[in-house]
Design goal:
The complex is a heterotrimer of chains A (about 130), B (about 100) and C (about 140).
Chain A lengths: L1 E6 L8 H14 L3 E7 L20 H12 L2 E5 H6 L5 H6 L11 E4 L2 H9 L2 E5 L2
Parallel strand pairs in A: 1-2, 1-5, 2-3, 3-4
Helix pairs in contact in A: 1-2
Chain B lengths: L2 E5 L8 H8 L5 E4 L14 H10 L3 E5 H6 L12 E3 L1 H10 L2 E5 L1
Parallel strand pairs in B: 1-2, 1-5, 2-3, 3-4
Chain C lengths: L6 E6 L8 H12 L5 E6 L36 E4 H6 L11 E4 L5 E4 L1 E4 L1 H9 L3 E4 L1
Parallel strand pairs in C: 1-2, 1-7, 2-3, 3-6
Antiparallel strand pairs in C: 4-5
Classes of the chains: A alpha/beta (about 130), B alpha/beta (about 100), C alpha/beta (about 140).
């Protein structure tokens, strides 16, 4: 079965990104497919490569990037939500005249249409948020 | 056709669990996760209401074990009739029901 | 219904302005309208506050997005289900809500109200009839 997953809260403040991660790991282990995870609202902040959590804590961004690398999951950050919150890829930083970009490996910025498309193309959509 | 409902808020903080139970239909499942797991404990002011929904409404009530353990709630504190699942059980519930509704 | 059309429900349970969820939900609805799916919106619990008349955000410095609901008909989003019990619990009646109309192309473009007041039991049935439920 194909699962689409939405993460709509930021890392560390809220458990949503952690619960979603454990859900996806378990779904893959059970033989299901998770073609895409969509990050919305403050969830877009999961995709920053500039976070430096303490050594003895999990690194939420790295967990997701590793999962995407191993299983080919498309990690999509909503562009409208990302721009409000200072999440930019290289192309968008240049277009907006900003001096830095911050998107982590495995994540990409795209439109809300990717969320709807995920709802159409998967068998179940599971949301994690506040 | 049935629904998996997830509730991630303590019932002592918000009305999400109560609203979820009021919209769940016979054959549905309600899974308490994150702070929602406090709703699965026995001996609270809401225990009777939740237990009644579990018994009478034909609704399966589940709680996510890892979130119980994280909060120091041992299995002995779980309401009668509430089934504890792990993340694999969460996935099975999502697969078994036709849609998932998050009561955020 | 053809295989590639799914029933999408946007489940709105939060009040506007205190958090961004209501506004960003509306942004999804507007983008999602281009995908030719079967779309409905549900307003229950504090979500009913999103539709009240007379919202004026000038003094809080935040964009007032409530007029956008009146434009949904142009996007062929014409079903806004509002739960009666949620209104009553909050001291509201349907008259406290904005008038939101759409033109029915199957009825000689007659103007009809998009807001449909439903009972809690009917709302449960509406949720149970969906393929995809997006919660905000």
């Amino acid at each position: 079965m194909k699962f689409g997953v939405v993460v709509s809260e930021g890392p560390y403040t809220h458990q949503a990104a952690d619960t979603a991660y454990h859900f996806v790991v378990a779904a893959l282990a059970a033989g299901h497919e998770v073609p895409r995870v969509f990050f919305y609202h403050d969830g877009v902040n999961v995709g920053t490569r500039l976070s430096v959590p303490p050594q003895d804590e999990r690194n939420i961004q790295e967990q997701w990037s590793a999962l995407a690398r191993e299983h080919g999951i498309d990690l999509v950050i909503c562009i409208a939500a990302a721009q409000r919150r200072g999440m930019l890829d290289e192309k968008e930083a240049e277009r907006q005249g900003k001096d830095a970009d911050n998107i982590a490996e495995g994540f990409r910025i795209s439109g809300l249409g990717q969320l709807i498309e995920m709802g159409i193309q998967t068998d179940r959509l599971v949301m994690f948020g506040d | 056709m049935s629904t998996l409902h997830t509730v991630n808020k303590s019932p002592f903080a918000t009305g999400s669990l109560r609203s979820c139970l009021a919209h769940a239909r016979s054959g549905d499942a309600v899974l308490m996760i994150e702070d929602g797991v406090y709703g699965a404990t026995a001996g609270t002011g809401l225990s009777d209401e939740i237990a009644a929904a579990a018994r009478g409404g034909g609704i399966g009530i589940y709680v996510l074990g890892p979130d119980m353990a994280a909060r120091g709630l041992d299995a002995g504190r779980v309401l009668d009739g509430v089934i504890t699942v792990d993340y694999a059980g969460f996935v099975d519930l999502a697969a078994k029901h036709d849609r998932a509704v998050a009561w955020l | 219904m053809s295989d590639d059309v799914k029933k999408f429900l946007y489940l709105n349970r939060k009040a506007p302005y205190g958090t961004i969820y209501a506004l960003e939900a509306l942004e999804v609805v507007l983008i999602g309208a281009a995908f030719d799916q079967d779309v409905s919106l549900a307003f229950l619990d504090d979500g009913v506050f999103q539709l009240t008349r007379g919202q004026d955000t000038k003094e809080i410095g935040v964009k007032n997005f409530s007029p956008t609901f009146r434009a949904l008909g142009d996007y062929e989003v014409t079903r806004l289900y509002v739960e009666r019990e949620s209104l009553e619990e909050r001291g509201l009646s349907p008259d406290d809500l904005q008038e939101i109309m759409y033109e029915d192309e199957d009825d000689d473009w007659a103007e009809k109200p998009s807001i449909r007041i439903v009972s809690r039991a009917e709302m449960a049935d509406i949720i149970a009839a969906q393929d995809v439920v997006l919660s905000f």
